[in-house]
Amino acid sequence: MDLRALISQGEGERLEFKKRTTHPTRISRTLSSLANTHGGQVLVGVDDDGRVVGVRDAEEEMFVLREAAAHYIDPPLTLHFREVETDDDHIVLVVSVAESQNKPHRAQIAPGEWRGYVRVRDESVQASSLTEKILERQQPEAGLEKLPLNKDELHVLDYLNTKQPRITVAQYTKLINVGHRRAYRTLIKLVLHGYLRYHDKEKEPYYTL
After folding, report:
1. In the 3-class helix/strand/coil scheme, how is the chain assigned residue by residue?
2. 61-98 pLDDT per residue, tens
3. What is the pTM of this model?
4. Per residue in 132-159, pLDDT tens?
5. Domain limits for position 14
6. 138 inside domain
7. Does residue 135 form part of some domain?
8. Which of 98, 147, 166, 190 is the most buried (most CB within 10 A)?
Protein backbone atom coordinates (compact mmCIF):
# COMPACT_ATOMS: atom_id res chain seq x y z
CA MET A 1 0.00 0.00 0.00
CA ASP A 2 1.27 3.48 -0.91
CA LEU A 3 0.34 5.19 2.34
CA ARG A 4 1.85 8.55 1.40
CA ALA A 5 -0.15 8.69 -1.82
CA LEU A 6 -3.32 7.86 0.09
CA ILE A 7 -2.68 10.57 2.67
CA SER A 8 -1.89 13.09 -0.07
CA GLN A 9 -5.50 12.77 -1.28
CA GLY A 10 -6.62 14.46 1.93
CA GLU A 11 -9.75 13.74 3.90
CA GLY A 12 -12.89 13.34 1.83
CA GLU A 13 -16.05 11.33 1.35
CA ARG A 14 -14.16 8.03 1.51
CA LEU A 15 -11.17 8.91 3.68
CA GLU A 16 -10.86 10.03 7.32
CA PHE A 17 -7.76 10.76 9.42
CA LYS A 18 -7.71 9.99 13.15
CA LYS A 19 -4.79 10.68 15.46
CA ARG A 20 -6.22 7.99 17.73
CA THR A 21 -9.56 6.44 18.65
CA THR A 22 -10.64 7.72 22.06
CA HIS A 23 -14.06 6.18 22.62
CA PRO A 24 -16.41 3.86 20.69
CA THR A 25 -19.24 6.45 20.63
CA ARG A 26 -17.10 8.95 18.72
CA ILE A 27 -15.60 6.64 16.12
CA SER A 28 -18.94 4.88 15.60
CA ARG A 29 -20.29 7.98 13.84
CA THR A 30 -17.47 7.91 11.33
CA LEU A 31 -17.70 4.17 10.73
CA SER A 32 -21.49 4.20 10.27
CA SER A 33 -21.37 7.21 7.96
CA LEU A 34 -18.89 5.47 5.65
CA ALA A 35 -20.99 2.29 5.60
CA ASN A 36 -24.13 4.34 4.87
CA THR A 37 -22.50 6.19 1.98
CA HIS A 38 -19.88 4.65 -0.33
CA GLY A 39 -17.54 2.98 2.11
CA GLY A 40 -13.99 4.11 2.70
CA GLN A 41 -11.01 4.02 5.00
CA VAL A 42 -10.00 5.48 8.35
CA LEU A 43 -6.28 6.07 8.89
CA VAL A 44 -5.54 5.88 12.61
CA GLY A 45 -2.21 7.47 13.49
CA VAL A 46 -2.58 10.40 11.09
CA ASP A 47 -3.57 13.86 12.33
CA ASP A 48 -6.00 16.24 10.64
CA ASP A 49 -3.19 17.90 8.65
CA GLY A 50 -2.06 14.59 7.17
CA ARG A 51 1.00 14.30 9.42
CA VAL A 52 1.85 10.73 10.38
CA VAL A 53 2.13 10.43 14.16
CA GLY A 54 1.62 6.68 14.43
CA VAL A 55 -0.27 4.64 17.01
CA ARG A 56 1.22 3.57 20.33
CA ASP A 57 -0.68 0.27 20.51
CA ALA A 58 -2.37 -1.04 17.36
CA GLU A 59 -4.08 -3.86 19.30
CA GLU A 60 -5.68 -1.36 21.67
CA GLU A 61 -6.89 0.74 18.75
CA MET A 62 -8.39 -2.31 17.06
CA PHE A 63 -10.12 -3.30 20.29
CA VAL A 64 -11.88 0.09 20.50
CA LEU A 65 -12.81 -0.05 16.81
CA ARG A 66 -14.22 -3.57 17.10
CA GLU A 67 -16.21 -2.53 20.17
CA ALA A 68 -17.64 0.41 18.24
CA ALA A 69 -18.53 -1.71 15.21
CA ALA A 70 -20.11 -4.51 17.26
CA HIS A 71 -21.87 -2.71 20.11
CA TYR A 72 -22.21 0.97 19.22
CA ILE A 73 -23.52 0.58 15.66
CA ASP A 74 -26.84 -1.01 14.74
CA PRO A 75 -26.84 -3.20 12.75
CA PRO A 76 -23.19 -4.07 13.56
CA LEU A 77 -20.39 -3.69 11.03
CA THR A 78 -17.46 -5.87 10.02
CA LEU A 79 -14.17 -4.00 9.74
CA HIS A 80 -10.92 -4.95 8.04
CA PHE A 81 -7.57 -3.86 9.47
CA ARG A 82 -4.10 -3.44 8.07
CA GLU A 83 -1.01 -2.20 9.90
CA VAL A 84 1.36 -0.17 7.73
CA GLU A 85 4.87 0.70 8.92
CA THR A 86 6.37 3.95 7.65
CA ASP A 87 10.01 4.66 6.86
CA ASP A 88 10.41 6.44 10.20
CA ASP A 89 9.08 3.43 12.14
CA HIS A 90 5.57 4.74 12.78
CA ILE A 91 2.64 2.33 12.59
CA VAL A 92 -0.55 3.53 10.88
CA LEU A 93 -3.68 1.43 11.25
CA VAL A 94 -5.72 1.33 8.04
CA VAL A 95 -9.36 0.55 8.79
CA SER A 96 -11.49 -0.40 5.77
CA VAL A 97 -15.27 -0.02 5.85
CA ALA A 98 -17.28 -1.46 2.99
CA GLU A 99 -20.42 0.20 1.68
CA SER A 100 -23.20 -1.67 3.44
CA GLN A 101 -25.94 -3.75 1.89
CA ASN A 102 -27.97 -3.35 5.08
CA LYS A 103 -28.52 0.41 5.38
CA PRO A 104 -29.12 2.48 7.39
CA HIS A 105 -26.68 1.92 10.22
CA ARG A 106 -27.18 4.04 13.33
CA ALA A 107 -24.55 5.03 15.87
CA GLN A 108 -25.16 5.17 19.60
CA ILE A 109 -24.38 8.69 20.80
CA ALA A 110 -25.76 8.25 24.32
CA PRO A 111 -27.42 5.43 26.29
CA GLY A 112 -30.63 4.55 24.43
CA GLU A 113 -30.06 7.23 21.76
CA TRP A 114 -29.16 6.17 18.24
CA ARG A 115 -28.72 8.35 15.14
CA GLY A 116 -27.93 7.78 11.49
CA TYR A 117 -24.99 9.47 9.81
CA VAL A 118 -23.87 9.91 6.22
CA ARG A 119 -20.64 11.13 4.70
CA VAL A 120 -20.78 14.63 3.19
CA ARG A 121 -17.42 15.67 1.77
CA ASP A 122 -15.00 15.15 4.70
CA GLU A 123 -17.55 15.12 7.51
CA SER A 124 -19.91 12.62 9.11
CA VAL A 125 -23.24 14.43 9.40
CA GLN A 126 -26.52 13.40 10.94
CA ALA A 127 -29.03 12.04 8.43
CA SER A 128 -32.56 13.34 8.20
CA SER A 129 -35.53 10.98 8.36
CA LEU A 130 -35.92 11.29 4.57
CA THR A 131 -32.27 10.40 4.03
CA GLU A 132 -32.70 7.32 6.22
CA LYS A 133 -35.72 6.25 4.19
CA ILE A 134 -33.68 6.63 1.02
CA LEU A 135 -30.84 4.61 2.53
CA GLU A 136 -33.26 1.79 3.32
CA ARG A 137 -34.05 1.51 -0.38
CA GLN A 138 -30.49 1.83 -1.64
CA GLN A 139 -28.05 -0.91 -2.45
CA PRO A 140 -24.34 -0.51 -3.24
CA GLU A 141 -23.74 1.00 -6.65
CA ALA A 142 -23.27 -2.31 -8.46
CA GLY A 143 -26.70 -3.49 -7.42
CA LEU A 144 -28.81 -0.45 -8.15
CA GLU A 145 -32.00 -1.12 -10.03
CA LYS A 146 -32.03 1.19 -13.04
CA LEU A 147 -35.41 2.06 -14.53
CA PRO A 148 -36.36 3.34 -17.98
CA LEU A 149 -36.74 7.12 -17.79
CA ASN A 150 -39.35 9.43 -19.32
CA LYS A 151 -38.53 12.77 -20.96
CA ASP A 152 -38.93 14.80 -17.75
CA GLU A 153 -36.57 12.49 -15.89
CA LEU A 154 -34.05 12.55 -18.73
CA HIS A 155 -34.33 16.34 -18.77
CA VAL A 156 -33.00 16.73 -15.22
CA LEU A 157 -30.09 14.36 -15.93
CA ASP A 158 -29.19 16.36 -19.03
CA TYR A 159 -29.44 19.60 -17.03
CA LEU A 160 -27.04 18.30 -14.38
CA ASN A 161 -24.66 16.92 -17.00
CA THR A 162 -24.46 20.03 -19.15
CA LYS A 163 -25.61 23.14 -17.26
CA GLN A 164 -25.37 23.06 -13.46
CA PRO A 165 -23.95 20.46 -11.02
CA ARG A 166 -26.97 20.69 -8.68
CA ILE A 167 -30.69 21.34 -8.78
CA THR A 168 -33.41 22.05 -6.21
CA VAL A 169 -37.08 21.10 -6.33
CA ALA A 170 -37.99 24.73 -7.05
CA GLN A 171 -35.57 24.85 -9.96
CA TYR A 172 -36.89 21.58 -11.33
CA THR A 173 -40.51 22.78 -11.20
CA LYS A 174 -39.52 25.69 -13.46
CA LEU A 175 -37.38 23.52 -15.69
CA ILE A 176 -40.19 21.16 -16.68
CA ASN A 177 -43.16 23.41 -15.75
CA VAL A 178 -44.91 21.11 -13.26
CA GLY A 179 -46.17 21.42 -9.70
CA HIS A 180 -43.95 21.18 -6.63
CA ARG A 181 -45.33 17.81 -5.49
CA ARG A 182 -44.79 16.12 -8.85
CA ALA A 183 -41.28 17.57 -9.17
CA TYR A 184 -40.39 16.39 -5.67
CA ARG A 185 -41.70 12.86 -6.26
CA THR A 186 -39.79 12.62 -9.55
CA LEU A 187 -36.50 13.66 -7.97
CA ILE A 188 -36.93 11.28 -5.04
CA LYS A 189 -37.71 8.45 -7.45
CA LEU A 190 -34.44 9.18 -9.26
CA VAL A 191 -32.61 9.10 -5.93
CA LEU A 192 -34.16 5.80 -4.89
CA HIS A 193 -33.09 4.15 -8.13
CA GLY A 194 -29.54 5.46 -8.06
CA TYR A 195 -29.65 8.17 -10.72
CA LEU A 196 -29.31 11.13 -8.35
CA ARG A 197 -27.92 11.86 -4.91
CA TYR A 198 -29.88 13.78 -2.30
CA HIS A 199 -28.18 16.41 -0.09
CA ASP A 200 -29.96 17.91 2.92
CA LYS A 201 -27.22 19.60 4.94
CA GLU A 202 -27.68 23.10 3.52
CA LYS A 203 -30.54 25.56 3.97
CA GLU A 204 -32.33 24.16 0.91
CA PRO A 205 -31.98 20.48 -0.06
CA TYR A 206 -30.58 19.82 -3.53
CA TYR A 207 -29.80 16.96 -5.89
CA THR A 208 -26.68 16.01 -7.84
CA LEU A 209 -25.54 13.18 -10.11
Report:
1. CCHHHHHHCCCECCEEEECCCCCHHHHHHHHHHHHHCCCEEEEECECCCCCECCCCCHHHHHHHHHHHHHHCEECCCCCEEEEEECCCCCEEEEEEECCCCCCCCEEEEECCEEEEEEEECCEEEECCHHHHHHHHHCCCHHHCCCCCCCHHHHHHHHHHHHCCCCECHHHHHHHHCCCHHHHHHHHHHHHHCCCCEEECCCCCCEEEC
2. 999 999 999 999 999 999 999 999 998 999 999 999 99
3. 0.74
4. 877 887 655 544 445 678 999 999 999 9
5. 3-127
6. no
7. no
8. 190
